Amino acid sequence: MSKVRTVLVTGGAGGIGRSIAEAFAAQGDRVVIADRDAAALARVAGELGVGAERIDITDAAEVAGAVERIVAQHGPIDVLVNNAGLLSLHGALMELPVADYESILRVNVLGTYAVTQAVARHMAETGNGGAVVNVSSIGARQPTPGMGGYESSKAAVDAMTRWAAVELAPHGIRVNAVSPGPVLTPMLAEGMPEGSEARAAWESRIPLGSLAATADVAAAVAFLASDGAGHITGTCLPVDGGQLLT
C-alpha cells in the first residue's frame, strides 16, 4: 500500500492550483491548499475536501509560521507545489512601471523562494526527502511582447529550480518545474471564448492546435512528484502542445 503523502499547493484556490490539488487528492494524498484570498480558499477547500491555510507568500515570517502549523495539523510535508504567482501586471519594457515589476518579482520570485526555503528546511530536518514542483512558464524561454516582466520572473523560477535541485539533492529532495504555455483557466476562457479571434491566434501558434487544460498541467505536476520520476531533478518540463518548437 502506497504511503499517504502530505502535499502543499500554493495558489490552490485558482484554476491551475485547484486542478493540481484535485489530482493529488484523487491519488489519496493529504492535500493542503494555500492562498491569500481567504474567501476563495475556504470555498475551494470545502468543495474539494482538503485542508486550507491562508498564506501571503511575500511575507517570509508568515510563510514560516504557516509551514509550522501545516506540519502540526497534517504531518510532515512530502510534496510542495509552488503554483502561486502574479500574472495580472503587464507592460512593454519602456512603459512598465518599476513598482509593478517589483510586485511581479516579489510574488513570483521572492514568494516562491520563501516557501521553498521554509519547506526545504522542514524536509531536511525530518530526513524523509521530498519533492518540490514549481509552476513556471514557457515564456521564460519564448518571449511575448508586453509580457516580459512576468516572463523574466519565470526565467528566475527556472534558475531557482536548478539551484534548489543541486543543493537539496543530498537531502533526498527533488526539485523540478512544469512550464505551461497558455492554459484554459476559467479566467482565460472568459476573456478568450471559443471561436474568438484572440483564441484562434493563440491556437495557431501551438502545433497540437489547442490550449492546455488545467488538468494537463496537473498531470505533469503529479508525475514529477511521483516515484515514477524518482531519478528526475532540476528539469523544467514544457506542457505547451509543442509551442516551443515553433
TrEMBL record:
Keyword check for Oxidoreductase: yes
UniProt keyword annotation of Oxidoreductase present: yes
CDD domains reported in the protein's UniProt record: SDR_c
Domain of life of the organism encoding this protein: Bacteria
Residues covered by the Ketoreductase domain: 5-181
Keywords annotated in UniProt: NAD, Oxidoreductase
InterPro entries referenced in this protein's UniProt entry, alphabetically: KR_dom, NAD(P)-bd_dom_sf, SDR_fam
Protein family: Belongs to the short-chain dehydrogenases/reductases (SDR) family.
Cross-referenced PANTHER family: DEHYDROGENASES, SHORT CHAIN, ESTRADIOL 17-BETA-DEHYDROGENASE 8-RELATED
Protein name (Swiss-Prot/TrEMBL): SDR family oxidoreductase
